[in-house]
């Protein structure tokens, strides 16, 4: 059947305005934040109801057309990229909060709800949605669930998975499953909800989510502490974590801070510059807790683990300190960074980072390597900035050779080649560095159960 006839048959399933095929829309909706794939979808459709999603899935099975789920398109692994005449299914029109119960402290929402809107809704109801990261202003809950988004508060609140208590999904066979129904306890066999969380749209579409909310933290206070070396950051983690219930423990190198300060719109946190910085956040619920934090800070100074530091004294200063860490990603984006999102168990972080740093600099001494991330949960972000004088293709080709050395080290440390950004297309060829061949076979078998015709996000996670 020609594309024209295919699209005519698809158009019949949804309102005329809910399908786009113009070049600009195909380009915009056919990609995410990865810059290395050429978008090439057949069409973009915007279902408004679960029934429309089911009709689209039936159509795709009938015509063997791939479907790519699309949320805020803020992904960094190519999971929402359509490069092979797939139909992109956007949830921009299924973006509402459709229920809330203050006793359950649970929100029922559609997948297209912007993450920040959920955070604001929780705040308006005296509660808190604790999954937070730089792109919450444009990411969608459905995409956050499909990639099990992590971010900066995982040390206390965990990943998105921890907050999803109900999930309605349309499987790749077109069946509607109503999973877990908002229950906190439910021991009735396999928990398919947790299969769909992190499946990157390869098993079916998320069409509704029930999200648990949390008590709102009070008087959040942050310290930015300069350290003489990376090992000192781990000493800080132990010193603070053993006495305080931290809400965040982040780090960034001075190269990151330099890029931030070059912007000129964020004040430097300290008078001088140092190799590494830790950003530590906690709830100063009482003056005693704040005094405790300052005492730990002073002890760390005496130990030589900290060479200088600052503590937030206001909401605005807290925001300014967080911008030093949260703005790194957008600030370095113009440098076409080669990104790696790695994790190991926390105790291994210092030697892991040292081994990777060594191998990258041995391969390419002139590479501008930036380190930042979430030390509190063992997640490091390695970014290599493209040298001005190197073409993008040549740069990424060089980085691909580095990748193999990096992933050999990940394997040696039993780490993950993708801590929070997902596999998508970017990490698909490196899956075996973190998952065994047997595991990958089981994943294929599960995929075949939920999506026997491989119409759901074909080619993502594995070939
Ligand atoms: C972070 C954001 C995406 C990136 O800043 O924690 O996950 O790696 C990242 O630039
Ligand atoms: Zn991150």
TrEMBL record:
<dbReference type="GO" id="GO:0022904">
    <property type="term" value="P:respiratory electron transport chain"/>
</dbReference>
<dbReference type="InterPro" id="IPR016166">
    <property type="entry name" value="FAD-bd_PCMH"/>
</dbReference>
<dbReference type="InterPro" id="IPR016164">
    <property type="entry name" value="FAD-linked_Oxase-like_C"/>
</dbReference>
<dbReference type="InterPro" id="IPR051264">
    <property type="entry name" value="FAD-oxidored/transferase_4"/>
</dbReference>
<dbReference type="GO" id="GO:0046872">
    <property type="term" value="F:metal ion binding"/>
</dbReference>
<keyword id="KW-0862">Zinc</keyword>
<dbReference type="InterPro" id="IPR004113">
    <property type="entry name" value="FAD-bd_oxidored_4_C"/>
</dbReference>
<dbReference type="InterPro" id="IPR036318">
    <property type="entry name" value="FAD-bd_PCMH-like_sf"/>
</dbReference>
<dbReference type="InterPro" id="IPR016171">
    <property type="entry name" value="Vanillyl_alc_oxidase_C-sub2"/>
</dbReference>
<dbReference type="GO" id="GO:0071949">
    <property type="term" value="F:FAD binding"/>
</dbReference>
<dbReference type="InterPro" id="IPR016167">
    <property type="entry name" value="FAD-bd_PCMH_sub1"/>
</dbReference>
<feature type="domain" description="FAD-binding PCMH-type">
    <location>
        <begin position="37"/>
        <end position="216"/>
    </location>
</feature>
<keyword id="KW-0274">FAD</keyword>
<dbReference type="Pfam" id="PF01565">
    <property type="entry name" value="FAD_binding_4"/>
</dbReference>
<comment type="similarity">
    <text>Belongs to the FAD-binding oxidoreductase/transferase type 4 family.</text>
</comment>
<keyword id="KW-0285">Flavoprotein</keyword>
<protein>
    <recommendedName>
        <fullName>D-2-hydroxyglutarate dehydrogenase</fullName>
        <ecNumber>1.1.99.39</ecNumber>
    </recommendedName>
</protein>
<dbReference type="InterPro" id="IPR006094">
    <property type="entry name" value="Oxid_FAD_bind_N"/>
</dbReference>
<keyword id="KW-0560">Oxidoreductase</keyword>
<dbReference type="InterPro" id="IPR016169">
    <property type="entry name" value="FAD-bd_PCMH_sub2"/>
</dbReference>
<dbReference type="GO" id="GO:0051990">
    <property type="term" value="F:(R)-2-hydroxyglutarate dehydrogenase activity"/>
</dbReference>
<dbReference type="Pfam" id="PF02913">
    <property type="entry name" value="FAD-oxidase_C"/>
</dbReference>
<comment type="subunit">
    <text>Homodimer.</text>
</comment>
<keyword id="KW-0479">Metal-binding</keyword>
